[in-house]
Amino acid sequence: MSELQMQGRVALVSGAASGMGEAVARRFLAMGASVVGFSLEKECGIDHKNFRYISGDITAYAACVDAVSRTVTEFGKLDSLVNCAGIVHEGGLETTDPMVFERVLRINTCGTFYICKAAIPYLKKQKSTIVNISSDMSIKPLADRIAYNPSKAAVNMLSECIALEYAPMVRCNAILPGIIDTPMIQKRLAAAAQPKQLQKEYQGLYALQRIGTTEDIVDSVVFLSTAQSDWITGICLPVCGGPAV
After folding, report:
1. Is residue 148 flagged as an active site residue?
2. Dist CA 111 CA 113 (whole Å)
3. Distance between CA atoms of 181 and 94, rounded to whole angstroms?
4. Is 82:131 a contact under the CB 8 Å cutoff?
5. Which SUPFAM superfamilies does the record associate with it (predicted)?
6. What is the pLDDT of residue 188?
7. Which one of 45, 69, 140, 158 has the largest count of C-beta atoms within 10 Å of its C-beta?
């Protein structure tokens, strides 16, 4: 794969302040793209001449419109959208507060819809791509994820609908990661009564007997955002180490 395979392309990455979003932004920059990061956090640790950062709330449609508009104003166009913003919540039907349920859907589902809707007028002007980060739990749910699982299942269907509606100019796909070694997971392990046992349980969920790395996901994002996948749209790609056997 050419290191400059994305030379001249402009990408907007939500959730770019940390975790998968930050890793995607850094890889795109290394491949020659100009990148705008969009996250709720006030600051982002990426320092690159072709990177701009916008702090904003993905659950506010006006903020999404502003982020897209500023991207196009700064770099002249928009070729790739990658949506990594999202939250995880653990809780079952009886233990999850209705307001929490709505918040999870507002961030994971509505936020993805808002940024896609804001970006599509610019994306459809030329051959372009959308990659939405979903979850393997959207197709193989774990217990006590009563809000998270359906919020990501909706992202899958949203991605398929966008792919159908905007082909052939816009290719839209979803990636379904398993548990990934991000700051969010590290925080959860640190707070556990038995961190090593919890990590072993996580690893046991997958046939490859490990949790994923951000680079595992970034490789798939790059594939679906470049010409290598020109005949692929509307798929929901599990990147999760295979089901445990």
Report:
1. yes
2. 5
3. 29
4. yes
5. NAD(P)-binding Rossmann-fold domains
6. 87
7. 158
- Number of alpha helices (DSSP H) and beta strands (DSSP E) in the chain: 8, 7
Q: Residue 26 CB: number of other CB atoms within 10 A?
A: 20
**Cis amide bond preceding 168, omega within 30:** yes
Q: Looking at residue 182, what is its pLDDT?
A: 86
Collapse the DSSP code of 231 into the 3-class scheme (helix H, G, I; strand E, B; otherwise coil) and give the result.
coil
- Catalytic, out of 53, 114, 122, 148: 148
Q: What pLDDT score was predicted for residue 62?
A: 99
- Other residues' Cβ atoms within 10 Å of the Cβ of residue 206: 19
What is the structure's pLDDT at 55?
Answer: 98
CA 201 – CA 210 distance, rounded (Å):
10
Domain 10-180+213-239 = CATH 3.40.109.10: no
- Give the mean model confidence (pLDDT) for residues 130-154: 97
State the Cα–Cα distance between residues 79 and 86, nearest whole angstrom: 22
C-alpha dist (Å) from residue 184 to 17, 31, 105, 122, 223 = 12, 26, 18, 32, 25
112-124 tens-digit pLDDT:
999 999 999 999 9
Task: Dump pLDDT digits (tens) for 172-213.
Answer: 999 999 999 988 889 889 999 999 999 999 999 999 999 999
- Structure tokens given for 91: 């809780």
* Helix, strand, coil fractions of the chain, as percent rounded to 5: 45, 20, 40
Helix-helix angle 148-166:98-105, to 10 degrees: 30
Question: Beta-strand (E) ranges in the chain?
Answer: 10-14, 34-39, 51-55, 80-83, 128-133, 170-177, 236-239
Cα 93 from Cα 67, distance rounded (Å): 35
